[in-house]
Amino acid sequence: MTDGAAIDPPLGLLAELTHRCPLSCPYCSNPENLDRRSSELDTLTWKRVFAEAAALGVMQVHLSGGEPTARPDIVEITAHCRDVGLYTNLITSGINVAGAKLNALADAGLDHVQISFQGDISDQADHVSGMQGSHARKLELAAQVTGLGLPLTVNAVIHRGNADRVREMVQFAVDLGARRIEIAHVQYYGWALRNRDALMPTAEQVRTSAAAVDQSRTDFAGQIVIDAVVPDYYARRPKPCVGGWGRRSLNVTPAGKVLPCHAAETIPHLTFPNVRDQSLSDIWHDSDAFNAYRGTDWMAEPCQSCDRRDVDFGGCRCQALAMTGDAAATDPACQLSPFHARMIELAETAVAEVEASPLDTRYDYRRFL
Ligand code: SF4
Ligand code: FES
């Protein structure tokens, strides 16, 4: 599975400290079955995981969730990550973080904060998040982050309800003092698949939002870094999902499972090892799950003989499974996939009857029960 090549160490670790979250986004990327609080790793185990990660070669840890600050030990964990030499990025909903908690995190050595915004207009953003007043609380946190001199990234998830406001989102991020904005269209697996018809942008929206990204890169040059990903349903070639399976990063779930990507558990025939039973190094190098789609040996045609196979690694395994029933298939985002036309058809069907207003859109919200 690994082409006989040496396995490089991962650069990043996404630590899903908890699945608990105050928001209910309809495109939530957490798995269908959320880990209960009672199954979460304890503080000592997380500390061991971070020490092992640093020894393995990980440079950057993303403290994520759910809402990672829902854990009472978030400051202790952050300080430990700093002590073992990891760069720490807090990925937060922005709820219940502003004030003393952020000050304590900054004192503990937090390096970077990433806040997800559901839009640039408060009532629309609150509607998507499923929580009245959430947007205002995010604004409060963003102001404190930049006031402390911490670098801020705005995370903007794009869908039909806000795809016409990409330029405004960039302006919004600039006004907040963010150094970077990540513009990412919804990925349609897991919970987001339930809301595909409500979230799918039209082809025209995809075109105009891509043009808005290009224009914003010119208009805001030197003010903010813009990272943007083309939505798969309108792409010609897939993105190298997670930089290639088992190649650059790994995720640890609240209960300690180690995954090559956040949606990997949707692949039913894989068994994922747990940090309670094995070291991170053993899991990274030797587990069947990480070796399953590592490198290129596992690929079938058309990927196997394609000159982009070392560029995009055949795209996303989870999307291939969701669309074709085979996780080893070519990602249908690729024009060369026999399922590509089906993917476009699904997108077109989803937007056949578009809602008049984003605030009228009925979502199946994600609730942590
Ligand atoms: Fe990528 Fe496979 Fe498509 Fe080639 S055939 S571009 S390797 S997904
Ligand atoms: Fe799992 Fe893309 S989300 S490989």
Q: What would you note in describing this structure?
A:
The chain is α/β, with parallel strands linked by helices and 369 residues long. The chain is 34% helix and 12% strand. It contains 14 helices and nine strands. Strands 7-6-5-4-3-2-1-8-9 form a nine-stranded mixed beta sheet. Strand 1 (12-16), helix 1 (43-56) and strand 2 (60-64) form a beta-alpha-beta unit. Helix 2 (74-83) runs parallel beside helix 3. The mean pLDDT is 92. The site of iron/sulfur cluster (SF4) has 14 residues, from helix 12.
Q: Total helix count? A: 14
Number of strands: 9
Q: Largest sheet, if any?
A: 9 strands, mixed
Low-confidence stretches: none
Radius of gyration using CA atoms only = 20 Å
N- to C-terminal distance: 39 Å
Helix and strand topology:
Blueprint: E1 12-16, H1 43-56, E2 60-64, H2 74-83, E3 87-92, H3 100-107, E4 112-117, H4 122-129, H5 134-147, E5 152-158, H6 166-176, E6 180-185, H7 191-194, H8 196-199, H9 203-219, E7 225-229, E8 249-252, E9 258-259, H10 280-286, H11 288-291, H12 309-312, H13 317-324, H14 340-350
Parallel strand pairs: 1-2, 1-8, 2-3, 3-4, 4-5, 5-6, 6-7
Antiparallel strand pairs: 8-9
Helix pairs in contact: 1-2, 2-3, 6-9
